Amino acid sequence: MKSANIFWQSQSGNTYACVIKTKEALEAVGFSVSLRHILSSAPDALEADLLVFAFPVYNFKPATAMAGFIEKLPACSKETPALALITCTGLMANIPYILRKKLKLKNILLSEAVKIPASETYILLRKYFKGTMELDSRLNEAELEGVKKQIAGILDGGLKKKAYIFNPFSLWHWLGKMSPEAAPGKPFQKRSWDEEKCTLCGDCYALCPSGSIKRSGDKLSVNTSTCVGCCGCFNICPSNAWKMEKFGEEFFLKNRHTAKLVEAIRASTKR
């Protein structure tokens, strides 16, 4: 039986929901599939017949935590094919091209990238670009089945190397290139934690891809200098215990897939 490992990162649940459908598509054609959250993956997970990288786009780049995860991977012992699942609101900014270059350094060959329009989770965009507020329901069950069909179609035709050409005229690419890695987290440096609202459920620090949120006894704290601005802590907190003066709770995304996401992260990271 062929094996596949899916490395994933998700901040509101959209990407994780796509991961589940990808797993179903792979299993339908005979793959044994293992889901590996990037906070819990070990190097031995590279020993598979197929690798899948699933992540959202931040700052017009691959998500900071996923990019860092790939950079720290050892090289595969043999050239290994890979697929990518990229969720965002459609601004690709040469992401497949960038990802292919990063993976090639690890002896991983990106065969195809599936681009999935999904809700915008970045709070600044949800506030200042009102149209993103209307995307909350985009990944309904019918659309997730569409993701599954895309993956099935790729597998049915056999994995082939797709050429991703660098587009020098992409404004989004250059915005991402010029923007500091820490830029998405800067607007949230003045966040506060409401001890009275907090239920100490642990969801925020289990999810935090940079490990910026820590718990000590019954207190939570955040290291704003390492925050990557994913907005996950705001978006998934059941009691809205994390807050900011400039951005109200109406801009936080309570996604239909969040509960399953949190359950999966707790199980995989054991945090």
Q: What descriptive keywords fit this protein?
A:
alpha/beta, 9 helices, Rossmann fold, Alpha-Beta Plaits, single chain, 271 residues, six-stranded mixed sheet, two-stranded antiparallel ribbon
Listing every helix as H and every strand as E from the N terminus to the C terminus, the arrangement reads EHEEEHEHEHHHEHEEHEH
Tell me the CATH superfamily of the largest domain.
Flavodoxin domain
Quote the beta fraction.
15-25%
Structural class: alpha/beta
Residue runs with pLDDT of under 50 for 5 or more positions: none
The largest pleated sheet is described as: 6 strands, mixed
Q: Care to count the β-strands? A: 10
Over all CA atoms, what is the radius of gyration?
Answer: 18 Å
State the CATH architecture of the largest domain. Answer: 3-Layer(aba) Sandwich
Helix tally? 9
The chain-level mean pLDDT equals: 86
Our measurement of the CA-to-CA distance between the termini, rounded to an integer number of angstroms, reads: 32 Å
Number of domains: 2
Helix content: 25-40%
Question: In the CATH scheme, what's the topology name of the largest domain?
Answer: Rossmann fold
Q: What general outline do the C-alpha atoms trace? A: globular
Q: Any idea of the CATH class of the largest domain?
A: Alpha Beta
